Amino acid sequence: MNDTAVHIRGLVKRYGGTSVVDGLDLDIVQGEVFALLGPNGAGKTTTVEILEGYRKRDAGTVSVLGEDPGRAGRSWRSKIGIVAQTATDASELTVREVVSHFATNYPRHRDPEAVINQVGLGEHAKKRVGRLSGGQRRRVDVALGIIGDPELLFLDEPTTGFDPEARVRFWHLIRQLSAEGTTIVLTTHYLDEVEALANRVAVIARGRLKVVGDPATLGGRATAGAVVSWRENGRLMEETTANPDHFVAQLVSKNSGNVAGLSVQRPSLEDVYLQMIGDSADGAELRKEAV
Ligand SMILES: Nc1ncnc2c1ncn2[C@@H]1O[C@H](COP(=O)(O)OP(=O)(O)OP(=O)(O)O)[C@@H](O)[C@H]1O
């Protein structure tokens, strides 16, 4: 059985002679939550829109659920869910009307009421979409993305504008969809979202793949040196060590089991991501912009 949901080899997209996607290779396995991470303008949305069949490529091979998105038809499209970066237009229709109407596009769709509740809009079902707040309207986008019960769901910066409670609720929904077998391609700038949701993450810069892997171990962060800190006689002490388990055991033993303010910190996903981006030309550009 072919368990590859997305297969990309040598993908190129050019605008005015500049390659904004520049020889990208990626494989996304069925059932995984796969995150795309990269600075503004890295080529993430362009790549995703090619995978969705909404942009033409200039070179390379692309297969999404076994078909070329540039040529695939209606039955393929009905297996794809999309939450695009640009939000749904303000509508005079109510949330319930919009979601129910959208459902009729799909041969096999979820129950509109259940979906409205899942995205946390149950008490706003009778409100016109145009009267919702920005974050609530974004939740309508998510509802429309999942109403067709997609096999593959593209989420392009889905939680922008969400309040913290809505984000946690959204994460719960994504985990639920993933547990049911939906493959999810998530583009986000929130590193905590990547850590909370993604099985694997690809870091893209200037249209090229820099690294792909498990967010927990990306860039060797799980085995990188750790900073152990603690308080001794009222002073803050710090030690960088490649073997924090051993160091902490010694510290605990030396202090008869009582170490004040003990903490062990390994590089965060943000640390390794910024390091990777900083190592590239994009980082140099970002630093230049920041001056
Ligand atoms: N239709 C277009 N015509 C010309 N250039 C374009 C077009 N669409 C995108 N680009 C350029 O391609 C590059 C990649 O854009 P893209 O939207 O894919 O980046 P991104 O990684 O999704 O960025 P962000 O994080 O800001 O959403 C950018 O430099 C952008 O200006």
UniProtKB/TrEMBL annotation:
Q: How does it sit in the membrane?
A: Peripheral membrane protein
Molecular function terms, GO-annotated: ATP binding
Subcellular location as annotated: Cell membrane
The chain positions of domain ABC transporter read 6-231
Question: Is Transmembrane one of the keywords UniProt gives this record?
Answer: no
Instruction: Name the Gene3D superfamilies on file.
Output: P-loop containing nucleotide triphosphate hydrolases
Short name of one Pfam family for this protein?
ABC_tran
Question: From which residue to which does the signal peptide run?
Answer: none
Q: Which SMART domains match?
A: AAA
Record's SUPFAM superfamilies?
Answer: P-loop containing nucleoside triphosphate hydrolases
Ordered alphabetically, the record's keywords are: Antibiotic resistance, ATP-binding, Nucleotide-binding, Transport
Name of the molecule in the record:
ABC transporter ATP-binding protein
Source species: Streptomyces cremeus
